[in-house]
Amino acid sequence: MSINYREAKRILNKQEEAREVINSYRGLESIGKRMQMRNNKDLILKLFEIEEDKAIVEVFTHLKVLYEEQWGDAEATAPPEKPGVVSADGSESADAAADLDDTIATPLAEAVPAA
Q1: Number of structural domains, the chain?
Q2: Is 99 part of a structural domain of the chain?
Q3: Residue 11 and residue 45: Cα distance in Å, rounded?
Q4: Within a 10 A sphere around the Cβ of 85, how many other Cβ atoms?
Q5: DSSP states along 42-104
Q6: Per-position pLDDT tens, the chain of length 115
Q7: 85 found inside a domain
């Protein structure tokens, strides 16, 4: 045998860890399919829609640290013409943009009582 007992146990533990990671991603794939999302970008936007603002800020802070290079690229890129409209091939669909305009509510400024 070329490996010892400890090395074999370590390999088995790593395999189990890898299996758990794969299964967690499978769960995300199936939730996207069940929600009839076209791609992961649509799923991410939908999840942000249902979360509270504090949760979104927390997620963004994690993303900024985990994906520093992509975060910098995103900051250096011009903002999209229609925020919230994503497509798999990079082109926008007029139907999707019209649907989005109907479904996303624009936040209204709250009136502040005069002191």
Answers
A1: 2
A2: no
A3: 37
A4: 20
A5: HHHHHHHHHS-HHHHHHHHHHHHHHTHHHHHHHHHSPPPSSTT---TTSPPPHHHHHHHHHHP
A6: 688 999 999 999 999 999 988 888 777 777 778 878 777 777 777 777 777 778 878 888 888 888 888 888 888 888 888 877 776 665 544 454 445 445 444 444 444 555 4
A7: no
Residues 102 and 84: their CA atoms lie apart, in Å, by 12
In contact, 74 and 35? CB cutoff 8 Å: no
Same domain, residue pair 1 and 28: yes
**Gap between the Cα atoms of 80 and 106, Å rounded:** 17
Decide: helix, strand or coil at residue 7. helix
CB 84 within 8 A of CB 100: yes
* Nearest CA-CA partner of 39 in 96, 106, 80, 101: 96
Boundaries of domain holding 70: 40-79
Q: Is the pTM of this model over 0.70?
A: no
